[in-house]
Amino acid sequence: MQLSSINLPNYLIQLGLCPPEKQNQLIIKPVAAKNFNLLVTLPDGEKLLVKQERYNQDGKTAGEFGQEWRIQEFVQHFPELATLHPYLPKVLHFDPGESIIIFRYLDEYRDVMEFYAEETIFPSAIAASIGTTLATIHRTTFNRDDYRQFFSQPPHTLPETVPNLIGGLERITPDIFGLVPVDGLKFFALYQRYDSLGNAIAELGKTFTPSCLTHNDLKLNNILLSNHWEQSRDRRVRLIDWERSHWGDPAFDVGTLIASYIQIWLNSLVISNALSLEESLRLATTPLDQLQPSIASLTQAYFHSFPEILTHRPTLLLQIIQFAGLALIQQIQATIQYQKSFSNSGIAMLQVAKTLLCRPQQSIPTLFGTTTPDLIPPNPSPNSPETLCAPLR
């Protein structure tokens, strides 16, 4: 790492972010993350978040911060995009050579997942604000060729038509046995057993339509909410960690968000070989019906703020549901890669993912509950969560 608590004060002085006479008054603390982050408290109380990428054995970094900075350049390059500033993080400095980026730390915010975990409530107003914010970003940049060309300029290029949707699942080689634990092999065996699942993902890939700025990693952890959102007139949220952003498909962002809500439910299931699926669902500490209003409000707010998208993409809702299923599979892959495990909870997640991908229309009433979005025909007999967790056959 280039920066530590020892040399960081001099680095900030060189950038003009700290007066030389104040360097001994800085409070520097490490922040747990995949990168090596340092939180700096300045003498006036302002805080900075210093992020730096790890170097690999070849002395190189992944270069992820370049795309985070690209978003800042994008908004600055087109003055009409100034309206997007309130939704984005504030970047104070970027050093591409050393892979260091400095943000103004938003001390009065916390991420939405943290709010849900601490408060154990799921206000529909928060989900609606998220849906409105995302729709604003998508709508503002939608189908603008000059914006698309901006993201295609070197050193950046447009992503492939289907950006790594299935992560090599379509062709598994013997090398997998040296990379994946025994439990993880169960996932690959289950995945390849069901042609309908692979076919659904392949068909979804054909519908992938890059048409606006997309975040591409829109989990609830990457959305910030004011600590005083209930008392504030401004209930806008901020989206952080734009490292994977690009010119992409809006359905991918919305689907990933919905999957983040579904994971709250699935992660609360009591999974045991001694329990049936129905018993596990009944014992969930966060039942799906507690999350349905938020999922519905998010989707309603998105389409209310961006109704014209349906003129271009009449089947967008179904694709959003399918992308939610795909995001669950990607989460399973991440768990296998980093935690080296694929347990019964992973099997339950795969069951839900298969239903969303292969039966998106039938999943609508279960996913959104009795309060279905206005754009979805009402169904007087919504299905139960068991429908989403239908056994893999």
Summarize this structure briefly:
The protein is of the alpha+beta class. It has helices at residues 8-15, 65-77, 112-119, 124-141, 145-152, 176-179, 182-193, 195-207, 250-266, 277-282, 288-305, 309-312, 316-339, 344-358, 360-368, 385-388, and strands at 27-31, 36-41, 47-52, 91-95, 100-104, 109-111, 212-214, 223-226, 238-239, 246-248.
So how many helices? Answer: 16
Percent helix among the residues?
Answer: 40-55%
Major beta-sheet overview: 5 strands, antiparallel
How does the overall form come out from the CA principal axes? globular
* Low-confidence residue ranges: 158-162, 376-381
Beta-strand portion reads: 5-15%
Mean pLDDT: 85
* Beta-strand segment tally: 10
Q: Indicate the structural class.
A: alpha+beta
Q: Rg to the nearest angstrom? A: 22 Å
Strand order of the largest sheet: 1-2-3-5-4
> What is the string of helix and strand elements?
HEEEHEEEHHHHHHEEEEHHHHHHHH
What is the rounded distance between the termini?
A: 49 Å
